[in-house]
Amino acid sequence: MGDDSSMLDISGLSVRFPSNDGTQSKRYVLDRLSLTVSKGEFVCIVGPSGCGKTTLLNSIAGFQPYEGQLLFRGKQVTRPDRERGVMFQEYALFPWYTVEENVALGPALSGIGRRERAKLARDYIRLVGLSGFERAYPNRLSGGMKQRVSLARMLINEPAIALLDEPFAALDEQNRETLQGELLRIREQSLLTCLFITHSLSEAVYLADRVIVLLPAPAGVALDVPIELPRSARDRDDIRFGRYVQQIRQAMRGAVS
User: Fold this and answer.
1) Which region holds residue 111: left if phi is over 0, alpha if psi is between -120 and 50, else beta?
2) CA distance 117 to 195
3) CB 46: neighbour CB atoms within 10 A?
């Protein structure tokens, strides 16, 4: 069982999918993977395409059957739960709902009254910097604004951990960096634990307390490195920042060689 400071305790986690050769055999995407995430940590996961990053996140979210031990707050994960919030690269907003209605979806499904959930939604819309757009529909929003709505919709459920699958990958560089800063600001206010998947090594170093590099499928951990730079020194042009990026890049090259 995990201690009070532990959010995730994963040991011997394996996931198998049917092989592509038409036989009944199965291939391992994750094979006896182990890692831990402490309460309040921001952990980024990187690795080559197809290595199982999203499969890992889906297992933690409760979407994907698995073998092994996957403990969230000391209890085995068996199904999705609001305490494990998920945010994907795709916006997945309902086009016929306004921003406020999209954000209020979780409270509505939980039976919270219209007036209370509208107030909650406005609070979280303000938190992500979208005040004034409550009545707008998704087709009137930019990509960055849509992801702010997605972030608010996840946060309104007050999850203990946020599982983020390349949420900023489709954005231009300026919007991406802006939302990185917004996520860190919100995380600092809420003490939210974050598990963040990305292909961008600089994004990982900028955001993370720790960066985990996964091996190609069947995935294991190739590198688990703490980013020992204060937030005020997370300058992408800083030589120390560049050293971390290079260390992670070398680990990925070693993993696929």
Assistant:
1) left
2) 27
3) 26
Give me the DSSP letters along 211-253: EEEEPSSSB-EEEEEE----GGG--TTSHHHHHHHHHHHHHHH
Do residues 51 and 121 share a domain? no
pLDDT along the chain (257 residues), means of 10: 75 84 68 93 92 92 93 94 89 92 92 91 94 95 92 93 92 89 89 94 96 85 93 86 94 75
| Full residue range of the structural domain in which residue 239 is found | 6-83+159-256
pLDDT at 6 (0 to 100): 87
Structure tokens at 36: 């831990």
211, 184 Cβ separation under 8 angstroms: no
Examine the domain organization and report whether 144 and 165 are in the same domain.
no
* Number of domains, the chain: 2
Residues 6+ apart with CB under 8 A from 118: 100, 104
Distances (CA, A) of 239 to 26, 242, 244, 245: 45, 5, 9, 10
Q: At 161, is the secondary structure helix, strand, or coil?
A: strand
Using only C-alpha atoms, the chain has a radius of gyration, in whole angstroms, of 19
What is the reported pLDDT for 180? Answer: 92
Determine the pLDDT at residue 119.
94
Res 20: pLDDT: 66
Question: Does any domain span residue 33?
Answer: yes
pLDDT at 2: 44
In a domain, 73, yes or no: yes
